[in-house]
Structures are given as structure tokens and as C-alpha cells.
Amino acid sequence: MLIISRVGKGLAGLKPSIPRVIALALLVSLSAAPVRSQQASAEPSPPVFNKVSDYEGLTISQIDIRGTSSGSRAKLLESLPLKAGDVLDKAKLQQSIQTLYASGRFADIQAEAERTPDRHLNLVFSVTRNYFIGDINVEGAPGRPTDNQIVNATKLQLGEQFTKEKMERGLQRVRTLLEEDGFYHAQISSNEELDSETQLATITIHISAGEEALIGAVTAVGHPRYSPVEIRDIAHMHAGDPVSSDRLTSGLERLRKKYQKQNRLLAQVAVTHVYRPEKNEVDYTFNIDPGPVVTIAVDGFHLSRRPTLQDRKRAIFADQTVMQKQPSDRLIKIIRDRIAMEIDDKNSTRRNSIHLAKKFNRSFVLKVMQRQ
Predict the structure, then answer these.
(1) What is the spatial distance between Cα 171 and Cα 154, in angstroms, rounded to a whole number?
(2) Among 54, 6, 62, which residue's Cα sits nearest to residue 29?
(3) Distance separating alpha carbons of residues 16 and 10, to the nearest angstrom
(4) Residues 291, 295, 298: CA angle, nearest 5 degrees
(5) How far apart are CA 367 and CA 359, in angstroms?
(6) How do strand 200-208 and strand 187-195 relate by DSSP bridges?
(7) Which of 38, 266, 320, 348 has the greatest CB tally within 10 Å of its CB?
(8) The whole model's pTM is what?
């Protein structure tokens, strides 16, 4: 038996146009030759490749596709350039492999040719199927996060090609999501049911959540202007509370609003956390920069003492908004953006005039007064 194989290349060293054809093997069995006991090299020498031409021109008795369902085999055979009764031709053989690969249904394709006693050839395409994600189920979710949140965290899309690598990355994202909600000891696994007829994969993610972590120490650094106890009360985050991503998000939002109510429009609040496995607790540290107190006045407008609008959905910029002398949320945002660019933190008090005519096709003068 003569085995010819070359990774990433076609017969006689020809390069196929589709590089993901992993291997192309042509197995030619000589009726009078003994079968070799050892495996042939995956990278044969050029003289071995030259032997392929010895079998060109032989008539193909039959063609088969192994590794696919009987229902799809007939359609695939019909699509191939090579047909039973044709003579073996390297170009058509390569085109046939490319046709199979272009269907998107196969990850690996190999061609095998066996000489028959009547000096004909039997041609077999051995394929490895691709599978596509048909459904994703979750078992054992703790309720927070929800089943839908866990599925979304995998970033696996229905209809996309399933691979073990994608599944492993998806499970790692699920682990991160569970840790954000305090489940640092969760056991996560998955299994797939592969339907060879439809080539769909049904994925089931199994979760054993384990004991939920609790909040440990909550501290603040920077210039919070509040005591640690006050910071914890404002954020509604205290030692012994369950860890959850919603609790942390709400805590950050409460702290930011607290500073905005003092006209500290440029306040920055960030958080870092450290998990302590020996106590199954998470320590949080808020890094707070309250920024300056900013007073805004616009010639021709009346600005409330709190320039951020409560009903952002109804606040739009239009001529009628200007006539009502009520600045829109969009105007407030631009003001805040411009302040961030214009403020000089070295000065405790400063007055700036910013021309906004290009933004609104009108002439406005913005006066900003800031103090620490």
C-alpha cells in the first residue's frame, strides 16, 4: 500500500485555494504489492508524490463519502466535479475536495483511492463533520445570575460552528460571571449532544454553585470627604452582605449621585476588589475623586441648581426647548464634556467662556465657576 499525504497542499504539491483543508491523502493499493506495516510519513519526499501520476487516467468505478449521513451523501456526490465513470484527474480531484469544504459542513477532508483488480479505482472521501450550535440549556443555576445571563455570558451564538475551544472560553466567561455574584466555589461543566443527521449540537451547561461569598471590608481611598462608615451607608454595602454584581453597581451609582447632588459634576468613583478564599469574603476599596464644585450659568438660559436632569428620556434638544429656557440633557452633556477639557485643576477658582455656536447654530456663552 502506498500512502501519500501532505498537510495543507493538494496532489503533487498543488496548493488548494482553501487553506483549512487539513490533510489530503491518496491511498493507492496495488493488488500485487504487500501492505506496509509502518505508517507513512506525513511529509513524504518528492519522489513519492511523483508516483501519483502513475494512477491518473484510470477509470473511477465508484465514489463514496464516509463520515456523513446517507440522506446528505447523494446530494454531495451530485455536487462533485468527479463522477463515477470519469478518469482520475488531479485537478478535478482537488476541485471535488474544495467543493466539499465550501459546503461548510466539514472540518477535515481526505481523499483515498484504491486500485481494483480490473485496473479501475474506487475513490472515497473521508470527512470529519462540523457541528453547529442548535440549543444551549443551563442546569443548576443559582438564580442570580439567571439562566439567560449565563447563556449570554458564553457568547456562543445559535447557528455558529461549535468547537471545543469556543466551549472552553464560554465556560470561563460563565465562571467569571458567577464570581461577580459571589460564587467563587462553583463547579461548572458541559456536555454536547451531536445530531449527525442535522449536524446540530445541543449544549447543556451544568452548574453547582456552592457557598456564596459575603462582603468583607469596605474602605475608601483618595479624597472621599466622607468617613468609611458613611461610605458604606451611602453605597448600602456592609460586611456580611451577600456579594452580587447588582449590589456593587447600585453602590457605585449611589456614590456618584451623592457627589453630583453637591454640584461635583466631575466626580470619579471606581472600585477594586480582592477575594479572600480563607474566609470566602470579598474586600472592596472605592477610589474616589470628588472633583471641584461646579456652578454653571448660560447667558439667556435659566439653569437649575442641579444641572443634571432627572427625566433624561423626555429631555431633548430642539428649538422649543430653547424657547422654554430649559437646557436639554444633550446640552448638559456637552457642557460637562467641555468642562472636563477646559478646567485647570491648579486654580481653585476660574471663569471660562466657551462659544457653542457650531454645536447649536446659535451663539451661547457658557460661564463656569468652580471651587474645591
Answers:
(1) 6
(2) 54
(3) 6
(4) 135
(5) 16
(6) antiparallel
(7) 266
(8) 0.64
pLDDT digits (tens, 9 = 90+) for 144-182: 999 999 999 999 999 999 999 999 999 999 999 999 999
Buried b (16+ CB within 10 A) or exposed e, 248-278: beebeeebeebbbeebbbbbebebeeeeeee
**Model confidence over 52-76: pLDDT tens digits?**
566 778 899 999 999 888 778 888 9
| DSSP character at residue 87 | B
> What number is the average pLDDT over the span 185-194?
95
- Residue 285 in contact with residue 220, Cβ under 8 Å? yes
State the chain's mean pLDDT as an integer.
Answer: 74
Locus of grid cell 467641555: 338
Secondary structure (DSSP) of 329-360: HHHHHHHHHHHHHH--TT-SS-EEEEE-HHHH
Dihedral sign, CA of 182, 183, 185, 188?
A: negative
Q: How far apart are CA 31 and CA 14, in angstroms?
A: 28
